[in-house]
Amino acid sequence: MARDAIGVLGATGYTGRLIVDELRRQGTPVVIAARNPGKLARVAAQTGCESLVADVNDLASLDRLTQRCRVLINTAGPFVDYGEPVVRAAIANRCHYVDTTGEQPFMKAMLAHDAPARERGVAVVSALAFEIAVGDCATALAGAGFREIGSAYLTYVTRFHPSQGTQRTVLRMLQTTGYAYEGGAWIEATPASVLRTVVFPPPLGRVTAVSFPAAEVITVPHHLPVREVRVFMAVPAALAHAAHWFAGPLTAALRGPLGRLAAGVIGTDTGGPSEATRHTDDFTILVEVRGVRAGVAAVERLLVRGHDPYGLTAAIAATGAARMAAPGYDRCGVLPPAAAFDPRPLLDGLSGAGLSYKRLESARA
Q1: For residue 256, with 0-12 CB atoms within 10 Å meaning exposed, 13-18 middle and 19 or more buried, which class applies?
Q2: N or C: fewer beta carbons within 10 Å in the chain?
Q3: Treating both helix axes as pointing N-terminal to C-terminal, what angle do 237-254 and 257-266 enclose, rounded to 10 degrees?
Q4: Exposure pattern of 56-85 as b/e (b: 16+ CB <10 Å)?
Q5: 268-284 as b/e: b if 16+ CB within 10 A
Q6: Is the separation of the CB atoms in 236 and 161 below 8 Å?
Q7: Tens of pLDDT along 7-32?
Q8: Under DSSP, is residue 226 helix (H, G, I), strand (E, B) or coil?
């Protein structure tokens, strides 16, 4: 059996199905995989894709899947709970690995697999999704030419309807340790521990934003000489101040009965927003890099805009996996998106999915 296919684990889930549809639209051979045979059979009948039952608790099934595929896209989260066996199987079977996570603890832990991945010529690329891959590549562009970087700040303004899978992952992240990158090292950081005011170009203008444990904190130091990385989310001012004071106690409470109650409210289904709702969702990211360039202190700002985050995630994951499956792809190890691919071509290639970016006027710091 030819090993030419791209596999999608979690293909019966919301994001997984969107990625399958995008790969089929691109004409790529696809193998779909999930743990529920009934759901998997229905998706296979609807898509005409080859299917394999695979469960993260069944290592033999993961071996069969990764032996069949040239690249595997993993969408089965929360990754901090279920991701590592899939990464291990991919490396062992020389199958490139992609996922859509934004989970800091998982990505930080996976750095331990860098040497085995390099030895076997496998690329392990997490966070090929709108909220990390785009920010990571945009920060790489903004930081180009800097000899040293004091800080890289990313601020998100979003209008977003999360799927149930995303809600479960967010809950799981609030129950685990988060990180900031400060002084050239990762440090533990509570969500909303830092508040700041950020000025966007019109029509957004001035916004209040709180820090949150996004995965660019893990990825950006891999490819830029940076001393500090923080990611912020714009929220109403009253909510920002409430989060700043109560995020610590809330995180502690979510590790107990409150977390179990929240999990019950979210449920175990794989539903998500309708296509019409997806197309009303949008986001703006402001990247600000401060450091020394050409011997003087400088600031570089890049503005990124897009819509339909889930549709864009499908396009990013499918595009990245297709490039990894192509002859001549030779990058290996545990890589952030901006190191796995050339950042500018990756972003430019997403214009058809509604992504745009522009450099704002640079200035001396």
Answers
A1: exposed
A2: N
A3: 110
A4: beeeebbbbbbebbbbbbbbbbbbbebbbe
A5: eebebbeeeebeebebb
A6: no
A7: 999 999 999 999 999 999 999 999 99
A8: strand
Per-residue CA distances from 143 to 4, 135, 291 (Å) = 36, 12, 9
Which positions ≥6 away from 282 have C-beta within 8 Å? Answer: 158, 159, 305, 306, 307, 308
What tens digit of pLDDT does each residue of 308-333 get?
Answer: 999 999 999 999 999 999 999 999 99
Pairing of β 229-234 and β 206-211: antiparallel
Instruction: Please give the Cα distance from 155 to 206 (Å, whole number).
Output: 12
Please say whether the beta carbons of 167 and 174 come within 8 A: no
- Give dist(CA 234, CA 195) in Å, integer: 10
- CA dihedral (333, 339, 345, 346) in degrees, to 10, reads 70
**What pLDDT band is residue 1 in, cutting at 50, 70 and 90?**
very low
SS3 label, residue 127: coil
Averaged pLDDT of the chain = 89
Q: Which residue has the tokens 């080859």?
A: 50
Gyration radius (Cα) of the chain, Å: 20
Q: How far apart are CA 233 and CA 154, in angstroms?
A: 9
Separation between Cα atoms, residue 295 and residue 316, nearest integer Å: 36
What global pTM score does this model have? 0.91
Pull the structure tokens for residue 177.
């340790």
Q: How many angstroms separate the CA atoms of 69 and 53, rounded?
A: 14
User: What pLDDT digit, counting tens, does each position of 118-152 carry?
Assistant: 999 999 999 999 889 999 999 999 999 999 999 99
The size of the chain, in residues, is 365
CA atoms 64, 316, 211, 111: torsion sign:
positive
